[in-house]
Amino acid sequence: MCTVITGIDGYDIASAGFSVPVLSDLWQLPPQAFTQVLVLGSIGLFLGALLSGPAGDWFGRKPSLIGAVFVFGLFSVLSALAGSLTVLTLMRFLTGLGLGAAIPLTVALVSDYTPRARHGAVVASMATGFPLGALLGGLVAAKVVHYYGWQSVYLIGGLIPLLYVPFLIAWLPESLQFLVRRDGISQRVAGMLKTMDITLQPTDAIAAPPAAHEGNPVFALFRDGFAVRTILLWIVFAMNFLTTYCLLNWLPSLFHSSGMTNGEAIFATTMFQPGGLIGGLLIGHLCDRFGAERTLVVTVLIGAVFVVLLGFVSLPFFGTVLVMMGIGFGNGGSQMSMNALAGAVYPPQFRSTGTGWALGIGRLGNIFGPWVGGIMLSFGWAPQSIILTTAVPVLVVAAALTALRIVRSADAGKLRPVLPSVNPVASI
């Protein structure tokens, strides 16, 4: 159920840009006039991720996630009714709030239900819905926008999540760990355990009294030895997003200036998504086997190698497509396991907040990545130089992951376990 949410999220984020050329002609505005629509949408993603974390830890994963899906569905539909640039900008900002909130909440909820031995693989596999949705969004939006108008892009991205909300209300489970922290072993928890065929041992079944809220969960990210982990995780997310969105936003233009047709440039850039999909499915399993940080250092450096290859070597079109899939594997695939890593770094008490703020800080890279690329273009940098420069943040990611591995290894004996065991109640 969470994979479907990430897929809808990916569709909505990726497909919105396809309406810009049509609206530019229809409203007789230059394409750059729509910069505010894209930027405010990204700011909405940033704020939504920050707000979702505390909401998930205070009110529960399920109601917060359903609320996020409803918000981005509603305002996506209202985007289709916009009659001016100002209204469209406001609608895309509000849509972004819901889109930004959804991913960290899915990571937190799935992390709460995933056994330690398969955590990386399960969470990363769930997150593959995003590139799959983004890929389908590009293919679908490119077709429907010409046959049914620009409104169709937003209506598809809004009606599907709104129709999905009743299914989430009926069948999406709340986090057991959240319920036990709030209510102890209540009748509701006992019923959920019976449904999952989990029998508690006498020592497990001792119901702790409902705990008062343990303070501001945002402050908890910097207490009890978590401050260094939090800062390093933020660096990992921000730098990886910076590279990814700088490339995705500017490569079509750079490819076109190097001699590709517009269609070839868009297709080559889109191949980032299937590479990320393959990477997400594989890297999560490797993280479980060899350790998350150690595996991610290798995979992000693989992505950097493909970025350098793209910048240094003059490739035929098919070679460029393969290299873009390699970049997607290294950077996009690693991002999904980074989401899993965020769910593993923090305990259930503030897991939603930790994941949400990590993704929120990462969204700053989403905002500034295109801006950095634009600055390099304004200074007249050659396409090869711009591409090579985007490999630098990847090296920072590798260094931060290495430091995070050292910190977590040193603290392993000092901090309580941060991942659920097979029995989620026993781990609490």
Question: What report would you give on this structure?
Answer:
By secondary structure, the protein is mostly helical. It has a single domain, classed as Growth Hormone, Chain: A (Up-down Bundle), CATH 1.20.1250. The protein has 20 helices and no strands. The protein is globular and about 70 Å long. The model is unreliable at 203-213 and 415-428 (pLDDT under 50).
Judged by helices, strands and strand pairing, the structural class is: mainly alpha
Enumerate the spans where pLDDT stays under 50 for 5 or more consecutive residues.
203-213, 415-428
Question: What would CATH call the class?
Answer: Mainly Alpha
Q: Give the N-terminus to C-terminus distance in angstroms.
A: 25 Å
Q: What level of helicity do the residues show?
A: over 70%
Q: What's the CATH H-level homologous superfamily?
A: MFS general substrate transporter like domains
Structure summarized in a few sentences:
The protein is mostly helical and 428 residues long. The protein has helices spanning 2-15, 19-26, 35-59, 61-79, 85-113, 119-127, 129-148, 151-171, 176-183, 187-195, 217-220, 227-257, 262-270, 272-290, 292-312, 317-345, 351-378, 383-389, 392-411, 424-427.
